[in-house]
Amino acid sequence: MARYSDDVSPYAGGTELLLAMKMHFADYQHLVDLKRIPELRTIIRRDDIVSLGALATHATIADDAIISGAVPALGALCSSIANARVRTSGTIGGNLCFAEPRADPPVLLAALDAQLVLKSARGEHHISASQFIIGALETLRAPDELLLRIEIPVTACNIRYERVVFGHRTIAGAAAAIPKDPANKPRIWVGCIGTHPTSLPTTERYISANPASLDDGLTHAIATDIGTLDIVSDEDASADYRRHLAETVTRRAITAAADKKGTP
Ligand SMILES: Cc1cc2nc3c(=O)[nH]c(=O)nc-3n(C[C@H](O)[C@H](O)[C@H](O)COP(=O)(O)OP(=O)(O)OC[C@H]3O[C@@H](n4cnc5c(N)ncnc54)[C@H](O)[C@@H]3O)c2cc1C
User: Which residues have a Cβ under 8 Å from the Cβ of 138 and sit 6 or more positions away?
Assistant: First the structure.
């Protein structure tokens, strides 16, 4: 990666990269095939951290016993992404690094407070999943860096991800991580409606102050947060329709998590 500097791209499952190259949105003289690094595929749990290799495919994550025991909401999401062909070759690292605005895992991983570990010849650095994506197809990854793994804290939370899909892609997605101990802060994130996932701070404060309450105050808090966001309009959905869906999936995710239908 360092040797070819600007004219190189990591290549994982290729489900986004090859399409972008075929359509001439991206052009590289050199590709570095990460599939030759088996260590990047490992999923292990050390104490209260699940370490998820960047090269783990959606299908592997969906079937993994460590994931289904510790973060089943992620396994459930990965089992429903795209189709069997994309799930078998597409990786979690490729999903995060491509930063497609309609990608689901970045929303859930932000709510899970996951940390990303990146490495280059210059060294290793950690960054929160909630800060990694800064715009459409834009991340804080330097061109010579590889994403090695995603570290997910296993906490006593009820977690739920809800989404609405149109065609192949999500047009609104929301993740709720509600701690079993109300003294801890809930994390509510929404995505697939703008350029990148966003937290909903008014909603988080409302839930902290009214832990058992799924009343009109919650609906109002969600609408207040979502009302401040820049929402895209495209051929799949208008901004108004996305706003409505975002409010609906956020409320659904919170209700399911609060009802303990969410996963531990
Ligand atoms: C038909 C279809 C339906 C889809 N539906 C959904 C959906 O419902 N929800 C959803 O979230 N996603 C969806 N996707 C997107 C899918 O999840 C991604 O295509 C896949 O995860 C990308 O992974 P990949 O390994 O193929 O990445 P690649 O195409 O290999 O790489 C993508 C980008 O990430 C970079 N990259 C890859 N790995 C690393 C790494 N370890 N370190 C640094 N950079 C890296 C590459 O250089 C490239 O820029 C869909 C895709 C398709 C084609």
Answer: 99, 195, 196
Q: What is the CATH topology of the domain spanning 5-153?
A: 3.30.465
Q: Do 157-258 and 5-153 have the same topology in CATH?
A: no
Which alpha helices (DSSP H) does 81-118 contain, by range?
A: 84-89, 92-98, 105-111
Is the CB of 13 within 6 Å of ligand 1? Answer: yes
Q: Give the residue extent of every domain in the chain.
A: 5-153, 157-258
Q: Residue 95: CB within 6 Å of ligand 1?
A: yes
Amino acid at 105: P
Q: Residue 91 carries which DSSP code?
A: B
- Ligand 1 neighbour 179 (Cβ under 6 A): no
What is the percentage of the chain residues whose pLDDT exceeds 90? Answer: 90
What residue owns the CA closest to ligand 1's atom 2? 82
Is the beta carbon of 72 within 6 A of some atom in ligand 1? no
pLDDT at 261: 52
Return the CATH number of the domain spanning residue range 157-258. Answer: 3.30.390.50
For ligand 1, is residue 203 a contact (CB within 6 Å)? no
Cα 205 to ligand 1 centre (Å): 33
For ligand 1, whether the C-beta of 186 sits within 6 Å is no
- pTM greater than the 0.85 cutoff: yes
pLDDT tens digit sequence for 109-147: 999 999 999 999 999 999 999 999 999 999 999 989 999
pLDDT over threshold 80, residue 237: yes
Element (H, E) at 44: strand 43-46
